[in-house]
Design goal:
By secondary structure, the protein is mostly helical. The chain has one domain. Helices cover about 70% and strands about 0% of the residues. Helix 1 runs antiparallel to helix 3. It is flat and about 50 Å long.
């Protein structure tokens, strides 16, 4: 049982996680479209394609886990994946805003480096033994 929500942390959790990432994907896409509309015709690929990070790194993996009936990954893996996706998405938005504004910043590459490191941590956690990488709380008795 998941101690926070009192629900089993099995395949249905993957659906909830995928839906959350789908919400983030939708928000990023709508935000980019509105921002591009008010940017006086200036286009930034960083701004417009920021929705791909939560879509490809969040929705797709958890939807595939749900389709194949696999258990949700463990909390450390999910958290490092979420932090990596959020860092890459914010970095892309930041780079897009600066590009539309017509300036640069030395902090832009930091977002992409930090996000990549967090995704590498998530990948390393996924490669650990199954007892560490999967959420075993669903096997516990209440």
């Amino acid at each position: 049982m998941n101690t926070i929500t009192n629900t089993p942390a099995t395949a249905p959790t993957c659906t909830r996680i995928a839906l959350r990432y789908l919400g983030a994907t939708t928000f990023c896409l709508v935000f980019a479209i509105i921002y591009e509309f008010f940017s006086f015709g200036v286009f930034s690929p960083f701004m417009f394609f920021q929705f791909l990070f939560p879509l490809l790194l969040g929705v797709l993996p958890f939807a595939l886990l749900q389709i194949f009936g696999k258990a949700a990954p463990g909390l450390p893996l999910r958290q490092s994946l979420a932090l990596g996706i959020a860092t890459l998405t914010v970095g892309s938005c930041f780079a897009g805003v600066l590009e539309i504004y017509g300036t640069t910043s030395s902090l832009t590459p930091v977002f992409f480096c930090a996000g990549t490191i967090l995704l590498c941590v998530a990948a390393a956690l996924a490669l650990l033994p199954i007892a560490v990488a999967t959420d075993t709380r669903s096997l516990e008795t209440p």
